[in-house]
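## tool: complex_structure
## caller: assistant
## args:
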Amino acid sequence: MMNLFSHLPLNTFANKAILFCAISLGAVGQTLAQMDHSSHMMAGMTKPSACEGAGLECANAATPFLTPDGKLYLTWTGGGAVSVAQSSDLGKTFSTPIRIAEHGKSLDTGGDARPQIVVKDEHIFVTYAFFKDTHWNAQINKVYSDDGGKTFSAPVSIVKDSSSQRFPSMLLEPNGNIFLSWIDKRVVAASKNTPNEMLGGSIAYSFSGDGGVHFSPEKIANKDSCECCRIGSSLDSKGGLAFVYRAIFPGGIRDHASQYIDGNKKLGPIERVSLDDWRSDVCPHQGPTIAISDAGTFHVAWFTLAAKRQGVFYANSHNQGASYSEPERVGHADGNVSRPYLLAIGSNVWLVWKEFDGTKTTVNMKVSQDDGNTWTESKVLAETSAYSDHPLLIRVNKEVYLSWLTRDEGYRLTKIGVAQ
Amino acid sequence: MKKSLFIFGIFCTIVFSNLAFAQAVTLKPYQKGDWASLTKSANGQPLAIHIWGVTCAPCMKEMPKWGKFLTKNKSDRVIFLQVDDVPVSVIEKMLVRANLAQANNYYLATSFDEYLRYEIDPKWRGETPITILIDRSDKVERVVGPIDFSDLKKWFNR
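## result:
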């Protein structure tokens, strides 16, 4: 330290004061470092032996993709990394995982966050979000492989805007185009310190015709949305698609909305799924789900804590969201019900969700074979007694599989039905 | 001379801001099984337990208001529990910014899963912010979303 300040003349009060402050700064910095260290030590001393590795056994969220020939690709977040592995036997065994991105504690592992993956031939395309600064502004990155997963590109940002983006949701169209939607903060950021300062985020989307190399243009579908819930999306049989999300309606009401994009990429109006009247600036970390049958029926399920109803509900629409059926409760009214997920093939619809009774978590299922008019009784598909990810549904041709990651049982891909 | 004074000013600003940060933050780990001991500390007095997350925008907006509330109402007992999986240093910064560095602060040192939430409130699905109010007779109320601080003051005075 003497050498560092030896060039300063110490014959004035100010310079002596500088030296004093500098020494103090060093001492305080040391104190601060010790304190930070002790904070972490305190956590380490009492923290249980948490699962913190990057392997699938410690993952918090795993997202599958099944190719038409039945090959399973899985991406997950765990230990601050995003990893990818492949399976040729429907998840019984996996290839050696490849870590395609590492962000430590900055990786977005929130309750509704999960990496996304689509695969077309040898092209594997993955997106995920991480927090890029201390103000919790996020960035959506893409990573891809053109050699079937032998090598991957370096992670780079997808979205051109620099404000904040989270919760990517992807669909692979039959022609190979990729549809990407996400929660975007550019409109909200621009409103800061103006008379019309906004809350929440916006729903943004874009298409890529070159396997994710370029997404253009970036469009805002709804400038008023919740900023902490995933978007649900589904293709229809006519070349269009729909997505559902927690919107912010006038008066700060955070109810769910759907929007349709037709085969010519024309965006439809914002359609309200239900009049729940959820008037609260709360982050539920529980986004909705949508599946579209061959007849074009929108099947939607969502979580709400609104004045009118609380829990998980289901409704459908036969007119691209212009009107929805009366919401029907999913699961037990007095149960801890969460994380609904829908899948439709033809006029068959599968609905799964989680229920927790204080001891164990179950994945429950109902099936409709007449486009949502009637449903089977609820059936328990799987259970666990420790941490579990959201239940997801995927298909190969007419076969439907439940994808579920649990801490105790590991990753499970279970065949649960065949379309009639 | 002016330049030296300017440098002196910058140094001292850094020193004292670091000093304030270093001295102020109290933050304890919380894990499954801790809820009973946490609520036991109510001991017949009104206790508010505010659950928040650093990545939850409504929470971040509200925390400085909690700081102001406690500055005005020093005798009201509030516990803060941060539930996002983020570095401790980030939580500390937020608490300093919200003037809550010396409040009764906890952070989650275990999975934010159904088991943890059920122990706190069987009806809680993980939404944040949420405030659990325990009154003198151990009656528990749940306030989901940002709280009305005038209502909170009335509740403490009940």
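## assistant note: Residues 113 and 167 of chain A are 6 Å apart (CA to CA). Residues 13-46 of chain A form the longest helix (34 residues). Handing back to user.
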